[in-house]
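Case study 2.
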Amino acid sequence: MCSSDLFLIPSLPSGASVTNLIFVDAKASTFATNITYVASPLPDTAPTNNAYVLTTLIAGEDLALSMNASETNSYVGDTITYLLSVTNLGPSANGAVTITNLLTPNVTIASVNPSQGTYTNFNNTLVINLGVLSAGQSASVSVNATTLQAGSTAVSVATV
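Prediction:
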């Protein structure tokens, strides 16, 4: 969305200045660019300083993801519990948090327990929709996986 407003200043004495305050109400993470030009009907002796561009990052949410495993060594048939936690560090709420968790084929997913939201499992890839997290709010997911193959490494990779 772009908005253009023209602020007219009828007369400005030499050496004087004018300040305009512009307030932006952003609904999501984005950049706001303010391009300002100044012009006069009289000739300008230094026209190279008549424009200014300022770009500001408008931060939305900052999501932090952590993951822990209950076991570092296990046997075939053991259950490994992966605990995934996501926190919205702010400063604002988000639209929806989705964690994607890929597990290697040497485990089978026994259960998935999100603290909120829903999940789908397709070939050991979990897509966990946690919904909206307000600034400072956390949600977690417990994933229980059963080991299937001796001498292999079970890997769980998660992104948010």
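The mean pLDDT is 81.
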